[in-house]
Design brief:
By secondary structure, the protein is α/β, with parallel strands linked by helices. It has eleven helices and eleven strands. α2 (66-82) crosses α9 (284-297) and α6 (186-198) crosses α11 (319-340).
Length: 345
């Protein structure tokens, strides 16, 4: 049988013997090592040159909502700093699980990100079956900002203060009803934290959106709500709703006259927050590049003024700081969810 001549097309780095002349097993191992080196070099070069094309940020909510607005606000200057366009893609549904799962399954290269909010820290406890783990499959890039929640009642409500509302809840468990934008929503978690701190139990009425719940509160069909001040400041200022307390330590820019729950002796910290996360395994250099662009974006006048108009505060910071916040929120809210046996599925 005629045997083909061995042509020295290339050599391994540790030998002057042509690759084709090596024993088959050694040749296979050498080829694998060479391929691995090429892939590693390509990955390093890609990370070093990031970004080389458009970045996609997934918003797990419908367009024109708060998370969508905040995302488009900060990604506009981010794109300028990065020198590449940023495409915002809305993937609503499944209590934000559809969008979160899509990003968790994406290639960990920095070109697909998620605007995370409160559900990142609650859904693992709320849903018994998830196709991803929010705690490990998504890693922090940086915080965007936060807005406080406020406890409001109808203007005709007999409860003139937070203390009176809590006293009524203690006196007759289950007598107070509160509305939220849905099971596991920020308003639901804030109300659950208020129940825990005030040691009372109300009746949760979930709605398909906060505006419908506000309508029922205005109509006297609910006793109270914990909600973003942006959604009710107009009703408070017009005298249709009464604000009892802001559920953070610094108060609300939109309702500066309203005291914080902590100043009233009720230890509750509840906010709506936003941040960017990436798939697990995204290179650290890419994370740092994205984080730097986000922090720069948060200092631009257009971003700071718009967030202020929304009653929100820009935060920024390092990925590690955001990661610590996520872990603390996940622990606290997970305990509240399990203790109250709250389920979303």
């Amino acid at each position: 049988m005629h045997q083909l001549a061995c042509k020295p097309d290339y050599f391994f780095a540790d030998t002057t013997t042509p690759a084709c002349a090596l024993p088959s097993r050694r040749r296979a191992l050498g080829l694998a090592a060479a391929l691995g080196a090429v892939l590693l070099a390509g990955g390093a070069a890609s990370a070093a040159g990031f970004p080389e094309r458009a970045v996609t940020v997934v918003v797990p909510y419908a367009p024109a909502g708060g998370v969508d607005i905040v995302t488009r606000l900060v990604t506009t200057p981010m794109a300028e700093f990065l020198g590449q366009s940023i495409v915002v893609e809305n993937k609503p549904g499944g209590g934000t699980n559809i969008g979160m799962a899509a990003v968790a399954r994406s290639a960990p290269n920095g070109y697909t990100l998620l605007t995370a909010s409160n559900t990142l820290t609650t859904n693992k406890a709320l849903y018994s079956k998830l196709s991803f783990d929010p705690a490990t499959d998504l890693i922090p890039v940086g915080r965007i900002g936060e807005a406080p929640l406020v406890v409001v009642v109808n203007a005709k409500s007999p409860y003139k203060s937070l203390a009176e509302l809590i006293a009524a809840g203690k006196a007759k468990p289950g007598a107070l009803s509160y509305g939220t934008a849905g099971v596991g929503s920020s308003g639901h978690m804030a109300s659950a934290l208020l129940e825990k701190a005030g040691q009372f139990k109300g009746v949760h009425i979930p709605y398909k959106g906060g505006s419908t719940a506000v309508t029922d509160l205005l109509g006297g069909r609910l006793d109270f709500m914990a909600i973003n001040p942006l959604e009710v400041a107009g009703h408070v200022n017009s005298g249709n709703l009464r604000a009892l307390a802001v559920l953070n330590k610094n108060g609300s820019r939109l309702l500066p006259q309203v005291p914080t729950a902590r100043s009233l002796g009720v230890d509750v910290q509840a906010t709506v927050w936003w941040g960017l996360v990436a798939p697990k395994g995204t290179p650290e250099t890419v994370i740092q590049t994205l984080n730097a662009a986000l922090n720069k974006a948060l200092t631009t006048p257009a971003v700071t003024q718009t967030l202020a108009d929304m009653g929100a505060t820009p935060l920024g910071g390092t990925p590690a700081q955001f990661g610590s916040f996520i872990q603390a929120e996940t622990r606290e809210l997970g305990d509240v969810i399990r203790a109250a046996d709250i389920r979303a599925d």
